[in-house]
Design a protein that fits this description.
Layout: H1 7-15, H2 66-79, H3 97-111, H4 117-122, H5 126-136, H6 146-170
Helix pairs in contact: 2-3, 2-5
Length: about 170
């Protein structure tokens, strides 16, 4: 029998042969490519992929909690999709690093939760991200990120190097 193509499987296959930047963000199955009289592909006649949830390996699971619904709404707006499931991977839905930053900004503005881009890459589904956010949204606010701690350490090192150098020049 004919098996239905799923975007996740196709993307996984393409990752074995193509560099990441050449992996398509969205895939639409066509029975036939539209052609111009010259024989070239008629790009204007291709269907618009916006608004359609790609066929993913993960079955659609609707958001249940308020935070899952809020994240799904943000992702839907950022990705131009009407329907986003809680087990859908942000990148398999057509997300990229720029869209990830837009999603991060919207999360901060709408949910008042500051989460790093690294954490968004680590938690690429609504379910995992919601679990992460509810874990940090209790009485404790998120602690300063590793990046800000590292940044403070680097500033201290630079400061001590400058003091050391200026001390060497005077002697």
């Amino acid at each position: 029998g004919k098996s239905e193509m799923n975007t996740s499987g196709l993307r996984d296959f393409l990752k074995t042969t193509l560099p990441d930047f050449m992996i398509p963000a969205q895939v639409i199955a066509l029975t036939e490519m539209p052609h111009l009289p010259s024989g070239k592909v008629d790009r204007k006649a291709l269907p618009d992929p916006q608004g359609e949830r790609p066929r993913l390996a993960a079955a659609f699971a609707p958001p249940r909690t308020d935070i899952e619904k809020a994240i799904a709404g943000i992702w839907g707006r950022v990705l131009g999709l009407e329907k986003v499931g809680i087990d859908d991977n942000f990148f398999e839905l057509g997300g990229n690093s720029l869209r990830m930053i837009r999603a991060r900004t919207a999360l901060k503005e709408q949910l008042d939760m500051d989460i790093s881009v690294v954490e968004l890459f680590q938690f690429p589904t609504i379910r995992t991200l919601a679990n992460r956010l509810t874990g940090i949204s209790g009485p404790e606010k998120p602690v300063p990120s590793e990046r800000s701690a590292r940044s403070a350490t680097l500033k201290n090192r630079r400061k001590s190097r400058l003091q050391h150098r200026s001390g060497n020049r005077t002697s």
